[in-house]
Automatic annotation (TrEMBL):
Its EC number is 4.99.1.9. Involved in coproporphyrin-dependent heme b biosynthesis. Catalyzes the insertion of ferrous iron into coproporphyrin III to form Fe-coproporphyrin III. The gene is cpfC. It comes from the Bacteria. This is Coproporphyrin III ferrochelatase. It is found in: Cytoplasm. Coiled coil: none annotated. InterPro entries: Ferrochelatase, Ferrochelatase_C, Ferrochelatase_N. Belongs to the ferrochelatase family.
Length: 417
């Protein structure tokens, strides 16, 4: 492991503790088509089958406020560049204020970091875990700065998001570029990322177990309930603009309406239903947490609209599976545990919400497996995946997951743009 100090700035450096500005460029090695990458990934192979001696893992989170005074500054970070006034941000802020101004996401990432460290130690893997967030302290640029101070030059990043879209993949890659530009370490530190893990068994297993347990709970508490006609499973994920969804994943794959984002969710949902022994139970993919103007089309149906229609179809119970989330984000706690459950009650439905992966042993172990794929240069044919869509790419393909409104900003871990 590298031991050279690459420019410590000191714990009291005023440069710390802020969301960095957008990078104007990304660092390319001579002849490389992938910015900021380690040598085996610089030419943009779909899967890197060459071992890489990484120095550390970069755990990249979304971030969240940890007190009432943090809420509006946090939301300003999330919506930066969109010109949204504080009065409108306050409309969203009440979700956080309902929980004391504290999002659970930072604590979940602390727990995930500790769980990853324990699993790495159990396996005898000497890779420190650095944690940084996109939108709140600790920020990604602070984590990159720490890497520089500790002499780490090769990082393998895990984004706490499993699917392909601008907000769940490319925006993280842009933030890696922002962090390198902000710290001035782009000529020293290289950052790769693990593949999107929507269909890795470590991510899928907790949902299979959760759905199986939820259905068993309904069977036990409601004698005579007919799963095939009176129960429906709703797989919930974050809605995104339909224009962005269409741009998710490589265009040449031809995923159609909803792009790779919707296709990946549907494929995983089918696996979860089958593996949970629920192939005869009705299900659908639903969306939540839309935030754009009413004139802008977003993926539908909304989870609450879907719930409202279930009684007319003869349903008496609903199981909500938060398939798009790795932990209990605010969108899970508010949009599902508060609003969706309230909607279910208003329509006389029994509702059960399945747990997110969190620190489930299979999920934690699976993330370490994903890191070791790159450490060991695991052949593509040996990489586990439970759908026909995977294993997903190590280096994102050209034009993947464009933000239609913003275009292409500098980003790492993918072929430009």
């Amino acid at each position: 492991m590298a031991a050279t100090n690459l420019g410590s700035t000191g714990a009291d450096d005023p440069a710390r503790g802020h969301k960095p500005p957008h990078a104007e460029s990304a660092p390319f090695a001579p002849g490389a088509v992938v910015a900021g990458a380690t040598p085996p990934a610089q030419s943009g192979p779909e899967h890197v089958e060459v071992p890489v001696a990484y120095d550390a893992i970069l755990l990249a989170g979304f971030g969240g406020p940890e007190g009432q005074d943090d809420v509006i500054p946090f939301l300003r970070n999330v919506t930066r560049g969109r010109g949204i006034p504080d009065e409108r941000l306050e409309e969203v802020a009440h979700h956080y204020r309902h929980f004391g101004g504290v999002s659970p996401i930072n604590q979940h990432n602390r727990e995930l970091k500790a769980a990853l460290e324990a699993e790495l130690a159990r396996r005898g893997v000497d890779l420190p875990v650095l944690w940084g967030n996109r939108n709140w302290d600790p920020y990604l640029n602070d984590a990159v700065r720490e890497a520089g101070e500790r002499g780490f030059t090769k990082l393998i990043a895990i984004a706490t998001s499993a699917y392909s879209s601008y907000s769940s993949c490319r925006q993280y890659r842009e933030d890696y570029a922002d962090a390198l530009a902000d710290t001035g370490l782009g000529d020293v530190i290289e950052i790769d990322k693990v593949r999107q893990f929507f269909d890795h068994p470590g991510f899928v297993t907790p949902f299979v177990e959760g759905l199986r347990d939820a259905l068993a709970k309904l069977d036990a508490e409601h004698e005579g309930l007919d799963r095939t006609t009176e129960v429906e499973v709703l797989f919930a994920t974050h809605s995104i603009p339909t224009a962005d969804a269409a741009k998710s994943g490589p265009a040449e794959r031809g995923f159609g309406e909803g792009g790779a984002y919707a296709a990946q969710h549907r494929a995983v949902a089918e696996v979860v239903m089958r593996e949970a022994g629920a192939s005869d139970v009705p299900w659908q993919l639903v969306y939540q947490s839309r935030s754009g103007p009413p004139t802008q089309p977003w993926l539908e149906p909304d989870v609450n609209d879907a719930i409202a229609e279930l009684p007319a179809a003869g349903r008496k119970a609903v199981v909500i599976v938060p398939l798009g989330f790795v932990s209990d984000h605010m969108e899970v706690m508010w949009d599902l545990d508060e609003e969706a459950m309230e909607t279910a009650g208003e329509h006389g439905l029994t509702a059960v919400r399945v747990a997110t992966p969190g620190t489930h042993p299979a999920y934690v172990s699976g993330l370490v497996d994903l890191v070791l794929e790159r450490v060991n240069g695991t052949p593509t044919a040996e990489r586990p995946h439970v759908t026909d869509l995977g294993p997903w790419y190590d280096t994102c393909r050209p034009g993947c997951c464009e933000n239609v409104r913003l275009g292409f900003r500098p980003a790492l871990a993918g072929i430009a743009p």
